Structures
1.
Amino acid sequence: MAIDFEEALDSAEPELSSGMNTTPLIDVLLVLLVMFIITIPIQLHSVNMEMPAGLPPPPNTVPLVVRIEVTEQNQVLWNDEPLGGSAPLELRLRAAAQLAQQPEIHIRSHPLARYDAVAAVLSASQRLGLQKIGVVGLDVYAR
């Protein structure tokens, strides 16, 4: 009795696979990959820039600086020029305040100068409408 192998293969039940079916997983991953490729923005070889419109800004101008110094003897100097009291100081501060572009006022005092002399210069500068007032450090008097 001869057994035909072809009949035996046809009649036998298929063998069960114990592994996971990965076909649906691969299908889902391919769909996600296609969706990702579609949603990527198109790359352009140009750079979009917003250029300023209108006239260019005016060139930077170096501000005028006025150095006011109160010496050890409470004498007020305007750019190293001695003033004879508070009246000439107020005249010069008033003239500086009326300029179209106000100068920077740098006030420096000697460590032994009286406080009221320095305070008078500060208050006169502020009272006359100067906007750019600064007290400069004492590094010139360091020994």
Note: The mean pLDDT is 83.
2.
Amino acid sequence: MVLAVTETIQDVHNDFALSLEMAKEDGRKVVGCLCSYSPTELILAAGAIPVGLCGSTQEPITKAEEVLSPDQCPKVKATYGRAISGTCPIFPLADCVIAETTCDGRKKMYELLEREVPMYVMDLPQKPETPAALDHWVEEVRQAKSFLEQQLGVTITHDHLREAIVKGNKRRKLITDLYYCRVHHPGPINGFEFINTMSKLQYYTDFDHHIETLERFHAELHNLVEKKEYAHSADQPRILWTGLGNSLGCSKVLEIVEECGGVVVCQEGCGGVTRSEDQIHLHGNEDPLVAIAKRYLRVTCACMTPNNQRFEDLERLTGEFQIDGVIDLAWQFCQPFEIESYRVRELVKDKLGLPFLHVVTDYSHSDTEQLRIRIEGFMEQIATRKRYAL
């Protein structure tokens, strides 16, 4: 089940594109998603296949910079570059795309991206704790539903939505259980191997087979724990990863951490456990669109203000996963996560008393050795703290 660490994200995309082409030949529709705020239940209810289209590699950026300025977030550039360069085998297969206004860079890039594919850009309210935010977001979910119905030639009923909610909840529960397999000390899998596997498992054309695959992976990890066959030793520093996403293709920091003797046992933030924990709770005759909107408004991106739920999650996870140190990552030119890192530092260092490292980088490998020096120093902080604790 665990992927060979030599497999690249391009290999994953190429393999998946073949499956996707076969599904389209059978009449299936494909909807691209660009963020955790995209309600995949709408896509499932439409009978379509949800596909993540965010860029996570350096190669498409050169093409993107023919249009976008260099001082843009690497994810914005990589995503746009994938769409216009012809290097992504998945993007051309999308019948339409659901996006969102998480940050200025993304929403302005979408004005160019919609020239390539039909898009609906959901207007994301950024003060989630206010009553008006939910009202606005419910209407955006309704508009996204209408967009999908028009683009795909389908009618999405309440029954379809309820069935999709059951599917989505089942998938999220399994993914959360997989993340929590790493709560064991020591654990059954290293962070890089886990990312490798999860990067591939996020793509699927057959939902039931996808669920079966997640269940097999979970059973494999659980079996390793039962047999006490661990991937690392109990004395290796346990690291929590927070901030922006870390996936196959942009995992250089995670690789360096584990080469330096640490092990990433928990991810919070984009692509992490907090993106799968929350279920959609449908009460009685409640409109399923309202229930969907409530769940997706809970996502704790730094674009939200105030983003208090993120800090509650961080404090909880550091205890549950017995964390020795926290790494907070922001991509270059990402102001929301860069500024919010100050509050993360306050929580981790001042309140929790844990070593903290803030990293700002991009997808290239030009700063690899500089990062290695900083991460080695971070690991020494953890080792010193442990020595004084004895």
Note: The first strand starts at residue 30 and ends at 33.
3.
Amino acid sequence: MIAVADYGASNTQSVLRALRAVGGEAPLLTTDADTVRHAERVVLPGVGNFAAARRRLDETGLGEAITEVARAGRPVLGICLGLQLFLAESEEAPGVAGLGLLPGRVARFQTQLPVPHVGWARVRLTAGGKAHAALAPAFGSGGDEAFFYHVHSYHPADVDAARALAEAEYGSAFPTIVGAENVLGVQFHPEKSQAAGLALLRGFACWTP
């Protein structure tokens, strides 16, 4: 069972529909920490404010449950704000700690371009990304780039090269897929990214780290 952690983020239903569309293990939207704790794999979606989301994860116990799943070696995926919550900290909420499941922090875009960054962006795999089994279905055999839909004002930063699995560009390059062992995070919205997004979710649903 894939548990989709529900802490009040607005994009949970679209993520749930996309996971159902790719088949495999049945996804379950849940607010229950114990259900998450015992799931075979977990998805943390998210749209909103870092501090408010982190507070809800603490209040519901979902943050602790997701951390336990990650430490147990089961697959965990963070989407958009979900990825940001996996990192150590965010400029959006100074002094509020993230879950620390992935290396790096969250920074606001420093660019003359309009912020937030909204729209399709070319995502290019790094060497580590090309070797990642969960990502291969979205990029095709031998491929290293695809387009995904982004909506965000903040992005991962200070991610070491081995953990930055793909980059996009908005004024300058930024990591848009970050992964370490059984934990994976994407800054874009696969549920809004048509065929490539569904292929990525299918890859996660079948992934055995």
Note: The chain is about 30% helix and 30% strand.
